[in-house]
Amino acid sequence: MKKSEILAPAGSFDAFIAAVRSGADAVYLGAQSLNARRGAANFTDDQLKEASLIAKEHGIRIYLTVNTLVRDNETDLLTNVVSTACDIGADALIIQDIGVASLVRKMSDIPIHASTQMSVHTVSGAKKLQQLGFSRIVVPRELSQKELYDICNSVDVEIEMFVHGALCMCVSGQCLMSALFGSRSGNRGLCAQPCRLPFSVKGGTGHDLSLKDLSLLPYLSELQTTGVASFKIEGRMKRPEYVAAAVTACKSALSGDSDSDIFDKLRRVFSRSGFTDGYYTENRGRNMFGTRLYEDVTAAAPVLSELRRLYESEKPLYRVDFSFACKEGESVSLTASDGTNTVTVTADPASKAQKKAIDEETVKNQLSKCGGTLYYCGNINCTIDDGLFLPASTLNELRRSAIEKLTEHKRQFKRNRFVPVSQNHTPHKAEKAEIYVRFADENQIPDELDVSKVILPIRSDDNTFKKYNAAAELPRMMFGRENAVAKRLEELKNSGVTEAVFGTLDGLAVIQKVGLSPIAGFGSNVFNTSALSELQKMNVKEALLSCELTLKESARLGGEIRRGVFAYGRIPLMITRNCPVKNGTDCKSCRQNGSLTDRKGMEFPVDCRSGCAEILNSVPTYLGDKKEDIKNIDFLLLYFTKETKQECEHIISLFKKGLPFDGDFTRGLALRGVE
């Protein structure tokens, strides 16, 4: 059975040292740009180079995060990050954006890992990532034990999973709350964590979007037997003491250590009312929710100094054997071997002893002093002529020099191939944009409907699909249901449906398996020209652009694939597997009509008809009176969720006429964009 690696976070150089010295097998970290924790200290190019050398010395791997959506005008930034990764011998890049993945494959042969921000959560999606050249997949935190095992047993790529740390309410890569509220995008590494503020349902916790931290440490041994390659610790925004505690706790859990002291210290250094394993064990519900209490904060101070001792000095990792030779009239020599590399250093010949001559005991005493290095002393063989003198300082210098040379060997590495790629494209040209309408429920459809395309959820009636020649919308999240979704698509195909809309690569894989024409819909995070081109290579015919692009940014995108913008609707801010409304009531009482209220009294509807809970924005986005600002776009999507049939009819009419909206609304991010 292959040993699973312990993968530690490093948001700063101090945290990196804590991870390395605590015994992590690998570390993930970010450069100064294009990483999902831009609020962390992160690493300059010089720090990345030094961290890489330290990692090589310790025999651990470094994964560089490029796990954000990237604009077309940031290609130079991307090129620099990839160039640096190749130059320092990084072991992999962690990537969210399929456009970025495409560019990286052109630039280098460096391995690429699929970030959990890609939201891939099914066997079909994992196989799609394997086809796209990813060597590892970071699976979502929301997977149950069975769902995780199914993926592990179905693909030939490595599986990495989070086993400890913060747990977002939303499936990673699908959250727009921070972006919509303040332009600080979670998909761009600047999440402001508004979900940790009070959002409440009647009878709930008062913080019904705030989950406890995840901890699967009790399950590490069983997870290792399933073939999980990497146990990942969340925490690039956390202090070095936390990193050291988490790595040490993971090692203890894997060793079967029953000592609970380190686990208690880990809880004290950071938790939110304790930990949860609810997704993995399928015990979802109110007990998964928690906040950072005053008691949680004050519990950390007493253990910090103890945790610092875990990494305050180097721990010996490698045995070194010495052969010492001191012969009259010859240079003194010391040969050192760590089992892989052998080096020899020399000093001037020893002089005649005036008093005490050098002896074997003295030599062994000085050479064995390897403290403060990565080495511990093994065998020492001595060849010493009688009557010679050698000062202790010379012995110490020989030992230091030999160890330095061994360390230099460990610092050697092969750089990855790198070829810069230029991005030259002309903006896509489109005629007058057509109107596409998505209904959450077939009862919303007006009696008179004149639009270019209708999109309906796959649960809708077959006859309704036939009547409107509608495209079928897959659930964005299909946890454990991909076979049922595929079966339903087969039925729709047999009844005449030809197109289907997906939100993640999981859906694309299912659609292609069934043989329908795929459309990239909401949740697919299409942010740049490369992503559009990559989708076109996968035979995707049309794509909804990311809501986080401005209209001007959308207009500048190149490529041939037809594209659209989100022009009306309550933007889904989150999609979560743990329904917040259930904190205060049950499904029978809710009747799919729940909502959340924030601290300002704003109400956010919750739509659970797709199998997961989608938290919708409090007001709709509306661009019907801004159509003159929408350039180079093939279709405008009207995205109906909670509207009545009459409201849908009225909004379509307003939109066609280009009239202002006659209620509360927002422009979303179409004009202001994200940071």
SSE diagram, text form:
Layout: E1 5-10, H1 13-22, E2 26-30, H2 45-58, E3 61-66, H3 75-88, E4 92-95, H4 98-107, E5 112-114, H5 123-131, E6 136-138, H6 145-152, E7 158-165, H7 177-182, E8 199-200, E9 213-215, H8 220-225, E10 230-233, H9 240-255, H10 261-269, E11 275-276, H11 278-281, H12 294-298, H13 301-308, E12 318-326, E13 332-337, E14 342-347, E15 351-352, H14 360-367, E16 375-384, E17 388-389, H15 392-410, E18 434-438, E19 453-457, H16 462-468, E20 471-473, H17 482-494, E21 499-502, H18 505-514, E22 517-520, H19 529-537, E23 542-544, H20 551-556, E24 562-569, E25 572-576, H21 587-590, E26 595-598, E27 603-607, E28 613-616, E29 621-622, E30 635-639, H22 645-657
Parallel strand pairs: 1-2, 1-10, 2-3, 3-4, 4-5, 5-6, 6-7, 7-10, 9-11, 12-16, 18-19, 18-30, 19-20, 20-21, 21-22, 22-23, 23-24, 24-30
Antiparallel strand pairs: 7-9, 8-26, 12-13, 13-14, 15-17, 24-29, 25-28, 26-27, 27-28
Helix pairs in contact: 1-2, 1-9, 4-19, 5-18, 9-10, 9-13, 14-15, 17-18
